[in-house]
Amino acid sequence: xxxxxxxxxxxxxxxxxxxxxxxxxxxxxxxxxxxxxxxxxxxxxxxxxxxxxxxxxxxxxxxxxxxxxxxxxxxxxxxxxxxxxxxxxxxxxxxxxxxxxxxxxxxxxxxxxxxxxxxxxxxxxxxxxxxxxxxxxxxxxxxxxxxxxxxxxxxxxxxxxxxxxxxxxxxxxxxxxxxxxxxxxxxxxxxxxxxxxxxxx
Length: 201
Known about the structure:
This protein is α+β, with helices and mostly antiparallel strands. The protein has two domains: 3-69, Ribosomal Protein L9, domain 1 (3-Layer(aba) Sandwich); 73-150, Ribosomal protein L9, C-terminal domain (Ribosomal Protein L9, domain 2), CATH 3.10.430.100. The chain has five helices and seven strands. The strands form two sheets. It has a four-stranded mixed sheet with strand order 4-7-6-5. A hairpin with a 2-residue loop joins strand 6 (128-137) and strand 7. The longest helix has 26 residues, at 50-75. The termini are far apart. The model has no long low-confidence stretch (mean pLDDT 83).
């Protein structure tokens, strides 16, 4: 397949950025890159445009860096909540993928993020909170807190009182009973009234 050398005039994923000189299939250049204005043929006349293209690239990359830096600050303060289907034992069916996280970011916060920027060692398969690494830019990395909840309400577990608490409560109860008994014992005994006899004349 014939190859041709071109100068990129825009950032093209998988090829390079503005001012890069790359070799591509002649048909790809003729049918796509040139008609879309993404590249120009490598000629002596076009080489003179390299400095302008490099300046444009520097401005674009600086703008992307600033935009991603601001986005990173906002994402680091967010808590993304997702709901997963679970069984009666609380175990999840399936898992949470980068695509699902990207969809919820768009739905909950109106943040559009390529799922390729969401780095997971493996899909999330447990409920609770997780710290997710986001690689927004070659020089910008941040974390996003993701909380995975069950679609079923989990029963609340009522903890039994500890042995010490039970003993303390029993001791207080006995003290109260003893105090009541002592109070009753301390009541004075009333003496019977003695009627005085009237003296006869």
